[in-house]
Amino acid sequence: MRERIVPWLLAAGIALTAPAASAVIIDTIDLTVSATDFAAPSEFSFLSTKPIGPVSGQFQSLLSIVGTLTDSTGNPGGVGVAAVDAFLVTGIIDGMPLATGVGAGALGGGPYGPFSVATMIDAADFGGSIESFAVRLHFLGSGDGDSYSFTVSHSLSTLAAPEPASMALLGMGVLGAGFSRRRRAT
Fold first, then answer.
1. 40 burial class (0-12, 13-18, 19+ CB within 10 angstroms)?
2. 21-161 — its CATH code?
3. pLDDT digits (tens, 9 = 90+) for 52-65
């Protein structure tokens, strides 16, 4: 019985050590913004769009934001931003906003973030392929000459299939384990 189990355990061990697929970044948008509002609260909106396509399959969308809010009058907590929509930062695929984003709610002064969120995307939900993606930063400043500085990023990545040479090596290991079992039986 032991002679039958050992080769298959060896083959299973080889299969478990096969190289795992790794994330491959398709493209990234980085947007750096500095803005100052004057006297009254001000609404700011920035959009950056990039063509990528067409690409199909399943992807991961990763949004991130980091920034600094500075109160020009020196009042602690006297500066802030509020999301005009549901989020300060929204990812957009082929012109359609994603349901998730980063930076919800009102924020106080000083360092902001880093915050990030990942969302799985299927190109089938966008007509079978994706041809562009974008990132939007949209917020309401608190007024009084305050300044805002943000760096926003939106990246799309996919999982790569293991390379053919690795799969061939794995297959040869499994075949070798099977032949060694057959040789012992005769």
1. exposed
2. 2.60.120
3. 979 899 999 999 99
Going from N- to C-terminal start, the domains of the chain cover: 1-20+163-186, 21-161
CA distance linking residue 169 with residue 186, whole number of Å: 26
Query: What is the rounded distance in angstroms from the CA atom of residue 11 to the CA atom of residue 80?
Result: 60
83-84-89-95 Cα dihedral, nearest 10 degrees: 160
Q: Retrieve residue 85's tokens.
A: 């929509």
Percent of the chain with pLDDT over 70: 68
- Cβ 96 vs Cβ 121: under 8 Å: no
Lowest-confidence pick of 63-77, 79-93, 97-111, 150-164: 97-111
CA distance 136 to 122: 21
> Which of 97, 158, 153 minimizes the C-alpha distance to 122?
158
Helix, strand, coil shares, percent, the chain, to 5: 20, 50, 25
pLDDT of 123 higher than 60: yes
Question: What digits encode the pLDDT tens for the residues 17-28?
Answer: 445 557 788 899
